[in-house]
Amino acid sequence: MTLALSTLDSLKAGQSATVVHLAPNAQHGGVDVQRRLMELGFVPGERIRVLKRVLGGPLAVKVGESTFALRRFEAAMVSIKAD
Amino acid sequence: MEQQAPTRAPARTPLVALLGNPNCGKTALFNRLTGSRQKVANYAGVTIERKEGSFTSPAGRAFRVLDLPGAYSLTAQTPDEGITRDVVAGLRAGEQAPDAVLCVVNATNLRLNLRLVLELKRLGLPMVLALNMVDVARKRGIEIDTLKLSQELGMPVVETVAIQSGGEQALLAELDRMVFAEAVKARPLAAIDEVSVEDTQREVRRILAAAVSTTKDTGNLTEKIDNVVLHPVAGPIILAALMFLIFQAVFSWAGTPMDLIEAGVGGLGEMVGNLLGEGVLHSLIVDGIIAGVGSVLVFLPQILILFFFILLLEDVGYLPRAAFLLDRIMGSVGLSGRAFLPLLSSFACAIPGVMAARTIQNPRDRLVTIMIAPLMTCSARLPVYALLIAAFIPDQTVAGFLNLKGVVLFVLYMAGIVSAMAVAWVMKRRSEYKQQALMLELPAYHWPQPGALASGLWERAKIFLMRVGTLILTMMILLWLLSSFPGAPEGATHPPIYYSVAGMIGRALEVILAPIGFNWQIAIALVPGMAAREVAVGALGTVYALSGGDEVGDLLAPMIAQSWSLATGLALLAWYVYAPHCLPTLATVARETGSRKYAWIMAGYMFGLAYAAAFIVYRVTLAFTGA
After folding, report:
1. Domains within chain A, CATH numbers bracketed
2. Would the CB atoms of A38 and B197 count as touching at under 8 Å?
3. CB B603, CB B586: distance < 8 Å
4. pLDDT above 90 as % of chain B
5. Could you report the per-residue pLDDT of B469-522, keeping only the tens digit for each?
6. Closest to B441 (Cβ–Cβ): which among A33, A57, A68?
7. Alpha helices, DSSP H only, in B77-142?
8. Which one, of B59, B63, B76, B138, lies nearest residue B102 by Cα?
9. Nearest-by-Cβ selection for A54 from B108, B325, B434
10. Which residues have C-beta within 8 Å of that of residue B532, sequence separation ≥ 6?
């Protein structure tokens, strides 16, 4: 059993994980993007699952009962613990 | 004593603010409550739609209701959310502070929706929670204990089904129980940040655990559909096939109704012509108004078919999926994924498209979106395309099953899209580029609602007919005047229009336009065509009605097919992909960017592209047809 931390953008389609932490990325909207991600449900402890991803493009991520399309850099702000 | 009965202040009708996440069915509920008693305008100083309505409860009390833009949070990140925050907190100048907040939540997605409810609660306003889409939630095995939820949240909770007649009854009953004795004042916005986002989410989880249980796992149909629709290979193929089907349908379904309208217009012209006898009035009404307006009116069926599909795809929830699939392409030319929706609206009309760019946070990103929005093929181009395609593209089948006319239309739409991407790419290269956030919700699919679809189509038809009746009619009369006076001199060899004011302008412009194959008749039509693209079609109708072809009800398409070369027809098609024949759009761009500079840049680059494209198409076609 590994406890290695990674970020949401590294998950493959169909993989599930638990949100551990959100880090603002100063280059991409900083705390605003971080806060909005949390408001959409990406808060520590929440279960998430990658439904689909477009090659080189965005990911469709299920969080709670909602699905959001995130660009890869947005997904990279979410630290996760994969199942 | 005076506190016993609800004070029904004679002058004051309570104002209820309708607020909720995007995709919670808020607008459907607004429509259900208010019916047709709605006033749609803009918020002062900005181009964000303000929808207010009124209704009377079963107990006979009058209410005003304001449909606020959907928001995920009161910590606003878009101008729309800013409006919602300011209005609900009573901070927006010129807007009355609401007496109560009607918070609408999607019962199938409380985990997301309740967060906003808890945020709102901190403002201390009287609130009612409308648990919308309870029918869908029940079907999915989500059982919500409304009494318990009401206790946990400390506010009345009612179940609503906005898409069902009578689905608002419980809500009306609850509103009747409320007392609006005196104006309330919201607490300062800082109250929202008293609790962190994490703690709020923790509270949501606690409430859900107490009041909601999922009794059965019905499987998730939306996910199953998405497995196919968002599939890396199948997804894009489905998207392309859908787009293709739509353009095919625009041509193959519209034939009969268009024939009917054409026959009707021709018959009307003949009847009125016979009544009036020969003379100036005959010319104005038959050649000017009926020929001009009629040639635009005929495109109503095609516009309605196009919008039927756009509204249908929007209603079932497919459009955000299309944005998801196209995001990589958008990103590669430096556009935000959010640019998809403004650009898509631009297929209807660039003006709402340019306005919708306000939902893009980044100013540079927004500017690029605005600058390329008019390259999307708006519905006003459709009459022009349809006329030219009918006249110059043979009705034949290619590759076994495709209608060549539909293929050409598809190519024209693609030309606009590809050019827009190229322009965005050039603009991106000229400035420092940073990737923008997407964060786009992919809502659950649902069945389309015929009522909403019908009213959306009616709305489009109304807009089109209004334009035909006002702007286009005016331009046609003006054009007729300019085209009829002064009359032909003695011994004239050309039709009278050749010697008129419009004829003189047309012949002057012909000097510039001859290299791209346009004759003076086209040049005349392009001038009033600056008011709106489809005016050019009406103008051609008038110009040719006045240049001979004396038979009333003569069809425009065969007439131009006879008098223009194929090269001219195709060059005009290419011209219309780019040319900014729409002053209202340029005015909107100047207003939205706060400077005329960008309107001029837009006009310049679009005319430049139009001339270049028409030149190339004209010369290449001439080379092929051996003229």
Report:
1. 5-82 (2.30.30.90)
2. yes
3. yes
4. 30
5. 777 778 778 877 887 777 777 777 777 777 888 888 888 888 899 999 998 889
6. A68
7. 79-88, 110-121, 134-139
8. B63
9. B325
10. B380, B467, B471, B472, B475, B581, B582, B583, B584
What pLDDT does B244 receive?
Answer: 78
Of B196, B194, B106, nearest in space to A44 by CA: B196
Q: Concatenated DSSP letters for B488-535?
A: PPTT-SS-GGGGSHHHHHHHHHHHHHGGGT--HHHHHHHTGGGT-TTH
Split at pLDDT 50, 70, 90, the class of A1 is very low
Q: Copy the structure tokens of residue B340.
A: 């998809």
Q: Cβ distance A71 to B438 under 8 Å?
A: yes
- DSSP for B427-469? HHHTS---PPP--EE-PPP----HHHHHHHHHHHHHHHHHHII
Is B84 an interface residue toward A (CB < 8 Å)? no
Q: Is the pLDDT of residue A43 over 60?
A: yes
> In this structure, what are the phi and psi dihedrals at residue B210, rounded to the nearest 5 degrees?
-80, -35
Query: How large is the average pLDDT for residues B428-433?
Result: 67
Q: What is the mean pLDDT of residues A37-64?
A: 90
Does residue A60 sit at the B interface (CB-CB below 8 Å)?
yes
pLDDT for the residue B530: 78
User: Is B278:B314 a contact under the CB 8 Å cutoff?
Assistant: no
The predicted model gives B56-69 an average pLDDT of 92
CATH code of the domain made up of B15-214: 3.40.50.300
Where are the domains positioned within chain B?
Answer: 15-214
In percent, how much of chain B has pLDDT > 70?
Answer: 93
Inter-chain CB proximity A69 and B198 less than 8 Å: no
Are B438 and A69 in contact (CB < 8 Å)? yes
Radius of gyration of chain B (CA): 28
State residue B159 phi and psi, 5-degree precision.
-90, 135
What's the complex ipTM? 0.91
Q: Does A21 touch chain B (CB under 8 A)?
A: no
**Paired strand residues for B106:** B132
pLDDT for B202 beyond 50: yes
Place of tokens 């202040």: B9
Interchain proximity A69–B327, CB inside 8 Å: yes
Start-to-end CA distance of chain B, whole Å, equals 96
Distance from CA of B558 to the nearest CA of A (A): 47
Compute how many other C-beta atoms are within 10 angstroms of the C-beta atom of residue B583: 13
pTM above 0.90, yes or no: no
DSSP B59: T
Query: CB contact, 8 Å: A56 with chain B?
Result: yes
The pLDDT, as a whole number, for residue A81 is 92
Give the closest-approach CA distance of A81 to chain B in angstroms.
18
CB of A55 less than 8 A from some CB of B: yes
Contact A67/B at CB under 8 A: yes
Spatial distance between the Cα atoms of B30 and B16, rounded to a whole number of angstroms: 11
In chain B, residues with a C-beta closer than 8 Å to the C-beta of A19 are none
Block residue for tokens 């104006």? B183
Structural tokens at position B358: 């306000």
